Amino acid sequence: MSKHNILIIVTLWVLSILLQACSANAGPAFTPAETAITPTRVPSIDRETKIPTSAVKISPNTNEHPPLIYSNDYETPLPVAGEVNPAGAEDSPFITPDGNSMYFVFTPDVTVPVERQLLDGVTGIYVSHSIDGTWSAAQRLILQDAGKLSLDGCEYVQGNIIWFCSTREGYTGMHWFTAEYLDSRWQNWTLADFDPAYQVGELHFTLDGTQVYFASERAGGMGGRDIWMSSKVNGAWQEPVNIRAVNTVDGEGWPALNPSGDELWFTRNYGIWRSKFVTGEWQAPELVVSPLAGEPSIDKNGNLYFVHHFYHDDQMLEADIYVAYKK
User: Fold this and answer.
1) Is the model's pLDDT at 324 over the cut of 70?
2) Which of 12, 38, 140, 240 has the smallest C-beta neighbourhood within 10 Å, fewest atoms?
3) b/e 160-180 (16+ beta carbons within 10 angstroms → b)
4) What's the CATH number where 297 sits?
């Protein structure tokens, strides 16, 4: 997808080593005591206070490379209405099936190295809610104890459970975690149960929770990063299957299913593609929106939410969440 996202994924592994060095309990990659952490309420810093005063907000009128629609099913994409997209970078959107809540990752300054974003107090996962079609001011999700470092992303939410990837103190490498929303706050974050050999990347579950689609560079694929699927049988995730109908040597990632589960969306070559499930098989995908578009998320009405990156002279300036409404 974007150079920025690829850099973040690579740097997360480096950060995990730095976090391990900072932790008083550094050592094993995982210890039983760390699988259920009691949360502490942490005051949230206004994310906009961390945006540089020199930042320039880019609009559709000043966008050098606007996203274009290649499907007759969708309207022209526009930034989502409301308070989601100040200057800075909004990324990795996830829209709940009802279309009423949007989760995303924010960082105030894309020129700052990721290891410094870790310390800025605002980079992380946020949520905004739709009120009469306008998105509210976003609130950060606190998914770590006060005083402990972590960098969280890749969020997926179903009901009161959130899945997210994270590098954090006490763990070596990047891992998947879950947390649950209880008593008006996220708590009880727990290490997820994927077999490390599966190399699970960005993911999306079917609504019944029996299948997970994910991106991975694991061996046996079509080349580079591919889309894979694993089924849950008797409580255990099975050996992943390569979705060969959609994968190529170019690299595919950031999969998403529509709520009915008959469309598989993903990112390839800075564009968003869609495959339809017909007579029990995924079909050859079609390009829906490009350029500089990725990380799709679909609501129950078929509306397409995605991240659009703004570039000038091959340098990323910021990123916004866009929506293309289904006709």
Assistant:
1) yes
2) 38
3) eebbbbbbbbbbbebbbbebe
4) 2.120.10
